[in-house]
Amino acid sequence: MSRPDQASYMLRAAASDVGRLYKGQLLDLLDVREGHTVLDAGCGPGADLPALAQRVGGTGTVIGVDRDPAMLGQARERTRQLPRVEIREGDVLDLPVGPGTVDRAKIDRVLMHVEDPATALAQLHRVTRPGARVGLAEPDWDTLIVDAEDLETSRAFTRYTTTEAVRHATVGRGLPRLAEQAGFGVETVLATTPVFRDVEEADHTLGLGRNMEAAVAAGYVDRERGRRWFTGLSQGTFFASFTLVTVICSR
């Protein structure tokens, strides 16, 4: 089973009920105001940039940074009629942003993938002004549960996800500690539980099918047992969830 296009995956996830709920909460807590300079570090295809642009108004600036040219192309297209949005190519480990120039910053489901989350947070500290506010949101994949009669295979699926599929699978739980180590003051910590009752939506977001195939190939699950597990998910009442941690901190 092939992996979906990453930009399409991110946009669909952002538009889902789960995505809209936590992203709206993150932006509200971030308290973006008219005239602010706001950084979206690891902006991807720019799903959040229009909402940020609306909040900074005609006198603010939104900066979207990503290292993937394909993502940047989509972000530019999505914001081409928004003159207050700047799209910059760069890495969250070396942000192309001047020191002390940002009033608000967010990094959303990026730290779990980067080589060194601590360096990314140090970069956010460098580019933000004293008094700035920063929003962080990351899953804790160690809390991933998928209900199935074959409990051991569900546990093996989670072990594969945390061990092989995600570089920093438990970074969500470490966000407050990492933020303080980077020099931020932690103001708010929220742990929410996205719930999936639709197996197709869960398959898209959690990669049930493709990650089970990979788990089988990596020896975490017997092939026939993995096939029965995935097939059985759609044959009854479905439930899956994980924990998403959101942290708001101040510079």
From TrEMBL:
PANTHER family: TRANS-ACONITATE 2-METHYLTRANSFERASE, TRANS-ACONITATE 2-METHYLTRANSFERASE-RELATED. Keywords: Methyltransferase, Transferase. GO terms for molecular function: methyltransferase activity. It comes from Streptomyces variabilis. InterPro entries: Methyltranfer_dom, SAM-dependent_MTases_sf. Residues 34-180 form the Methyltransferase domain. SUPFAM superfamilies: S-adenosyl-L-methionine-dependent methyltransferases. This is Methyltransferase. GO terms for biological process: methylation.
